[in-house]
């Protein structure tokens, strides 16, 4: 496997010069690989490695999101639901380690050869996250019975969240900010990490309709509105439904509270900790917690920009009946 890892790295360096390039959200360009915009080092390299090295298991759970659609929140929810009989709330790993440690992103693991190879011997069931669009998922995640939870969020909210996230990182690395209108253009023309955003959603929506036991499609906004209902449905999909006794004793409420924005944002690990994305590049955990609201985009987008986003959503999602 070590040899395969090295070979996949070589493949990546050979493919890179052949791809379209555009200005990215951080200091590097983005490249277009099979229709998807990716950062060459942060994400494309890991994806190619996974294509050659990752083998899904039937009891894996894979959380898939576009960046800023609610990854951190749903990592916490899935981890808490699936492990609720293992940990007490007072010493829960989410409180000490945070969601990104409890549920690693496969793209991040694959930056480190040892971590990537250790995945093969990790205990079952593995809970993993990824931002990959459906067509780019490693073959065995499609052919095996592993379950996929996909989280969708209003593209206006994703854009606003993404703009704040990347501008914080740019400031930290002394890079000039991207003017807001340029960023809107980038997002709306698909130039965003794992974009086009709308195609990412459509890929999973289609599979969730064809195979509802394979892909569970959840909306950030629905979960904000009715977290208890969402958590119960999610637990059922994951094969860990709440018993009547658990419901009566308030187990669902406890999980909702443990994973709430208000709980997570105040934890030391999320205020002070760092997510090491690559051996050289770390991101402050606190950047993953901004407002945690459904409609904060209203405070940032003009009527004209809202119209632009909604027209694209109508055009892409209207015909298939996906409301947004
Ligand atoms: P905002 O920037 O709109 O506040 P991701 O985890 O995919 O990077 O997404 C980050 C977004 O999810 C941010 O949105 C962040 O505040 C929000 N978020 C993080 N934890 C959350 C939680 N427990 N509940 C609701 N939203 C949360």
UniProtKB/TrEMBL annotation:
<keyword id="KW-0808">Transferase</keyword>
<dbReference type="GO" id="GO:0008146">
    <property type="term" value="F:sulfotransferase activity"/>
</dbReference>
<feature type="domain" description="Sulfotransferase">
    <location>
        <begin position="58"/>
        <end position="318"/>
    </location>
</feature>
<dbReference type="InterPro" id="IPR000863">
    <property type="entry name" value="Sulfotransferase_dom"/>
</dbReference>
<dbReference type="Pfam" id="PF00685">
    <property type="entry name" value="Sulfotransfer_1"/>
</dbReference>
<protein>
    <recommendedName>
        <fullName>Sulfotransferase</fullName>
        <ecNumber>2.8.2.-</ecNumber>
    </recommendedName>
</protein>
<dbReference type="InterPro" id="IPR027417">
    <property type="entry name" value="P-loop_NTPase"/>
</dbReference>
<comment type="similarity">
    <text>Belongs to the sulfotransferase 1 family.</text>
</comment>
């Amino acid at each position: 496997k070590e040899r395969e890892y090295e070979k996949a790295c070589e493949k990546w360096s050979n493919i890179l010069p052949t791809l379209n390039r555009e200005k990215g959200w951080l200091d590097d360009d983005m490249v277009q690989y099979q229709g998807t915009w990716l950062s060459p080092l942060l994400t494309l390299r890991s994806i190619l490695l996974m294509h050659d090295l990752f083998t899904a298991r039937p009891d894996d759970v894979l959380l898939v999101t576009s960046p800023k659609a609610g990854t951190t929140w749903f990592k916490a929810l899935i981890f808490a639901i699936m492990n609720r009989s293992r940990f007490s709330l007072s010493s829960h790993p989410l409180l000490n380690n945070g969601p990104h440690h409890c549920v690693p992103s496969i793209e991040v693991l694959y930056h480190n050869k040892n971590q990537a190879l250790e995945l093969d011997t990790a205990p079952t069931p593995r809970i993993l996250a990824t931002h990959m669009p459906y067509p780019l998922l490693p073959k065995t995640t499609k052919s095996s019975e592993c379950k996929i939870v996909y989280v969708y969020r209003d593209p206006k909210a994703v854009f606003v969240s993404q703009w704040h996230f990347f501008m914080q990182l740019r400031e930290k690395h002394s890079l000039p900010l991207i003017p807001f209108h340029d960023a809107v253009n980038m997002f709306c023309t698909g130039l965003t990490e794992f974009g086009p955003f709308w195609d990412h959603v459509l890929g999973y929506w289609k599979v969730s309709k064809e195979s509802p036991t394979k892909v569970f499609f959840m909306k950030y906004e629905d979960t904000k509105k009715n977290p208890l209902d969402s958590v119960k449905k999610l637990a059922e999909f994951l094969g860990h439904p709440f018993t009547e006794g658990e419901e009566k004793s308030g187990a669902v409420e406890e999980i909702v509270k443990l994973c709430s924005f208000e709980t997570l944002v105040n934890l030391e690990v999320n205020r002070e900790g760092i997510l090491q994305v690559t051996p050289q590049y770390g991101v402050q955990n606190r950047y993953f917690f901004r407002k945690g609201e459904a409609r904060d985009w209203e405070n940032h987008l003009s009527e004209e920009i809202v119209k632009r986003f909604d027209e694209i959503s109508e055009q892409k999602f209207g015909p298939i009946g996906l409301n947004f």
